Structure formats: structure tokens, C-alpha cells
Amino acid sequence: MHELSMADAIIKTVIDAAEKNNAIEVLEVTIEIGELTLLNPEQIKFILEVLSEDTILEGAKFDIEIIPAKIECSCGYEGGVASDDGLDHYNPIISCPSCGKGDFKIIDGRECNIKNIKIEKEE
User: What phi-psi label fits residue 79: left (phi over 0), alpha (psi between -120 and 50 degrees) or beta?
Assistant: First the structure.
């Protein structure tokens, strides 16, 4: 279950950033998760909420934005992907929607980033 290790890394990174900015509370965290990361967004959100207990993040809102997969194919196509299975997060099988082949470079969809952290500071 790599969701746990990813959520733990996110929590540690957010706490570190909050402390460096003299935060007294983290209000909201926005996370980008690519379609091809094999991360389940609902599981990530649940684990983040559990791991944030008794930390500066307790009660923070976790927003997850899904980044669609985007490819650059050898046939010249650049854009979204076709999926035989609905782009399942557990087993993404993708092909170029133009030529149907798998000879492409993934441009977007593999990221997992902390996009934004909203904090509260002492006045």
C-alpha cells in the first residue's frame, strides 16, 4: 500500500513547510495526483486525515486535484489518452487515441505534488 508512504511524506513535508513559515495551524492543503500514479485519491485523503491527528495539520482540509494523463506519441499525437479499462488507478492500460499504439512519452499524469498550503500565523 504505497498510499501510506506517500501520505506520510506529504504530511512530513507540509509540517516542515508550516514550521519554517511560523504557522500556528494548517488550514488547507491542495495536492495534485496524476491519473497514472496508481494512487487511490480517496485512500490518500483518508490516510492524510488520520496521520494529521495530533499535529499542526489536525482539522485541515485536504483538496485533491486529479491531473489527467497526457502523452506525446511517435505518430505526432499530443494530448489525452485512450483507455481500455476506464483508466483504473490500479492497472492503467493506455494507448494512443490516434494510432492505437503504445509508443509514446508520458507528459502529464505521473505527478504527486503539494500545490498549495494555506496556513494561519500568530498576529
Answer: left
> Which of these, 31, 101, 106, lies nearest to 64 by C-alpha position?
31
Domains of the chain: 3-121 (3.30.2320.80)
Q: What order do you get walking across the sheet with 78-79 strand by strand?
A: 78-79, 70-73, 104-108
DSSP, residue by residue, 19-30? HHTTEEEEEEEE
pTM, entire model? 0.82
Count of CB atoms within 10 A of residue 23's CB?
Answer: 20
pLDDT at 90 over 70: no
Model confidence over 22-73: pLDDT tens digits?
999 999 999 999 988 889 999 999 999 999 999 999 999 999 999 998 999 9
Backbone angles phi, psi at 14, to 5 degrees: -65, -45
Helices marked H in 1-123: 2-20, 41-51
Say which amino acid occupies 8: D
What is the identity of the amino acid at 16? D
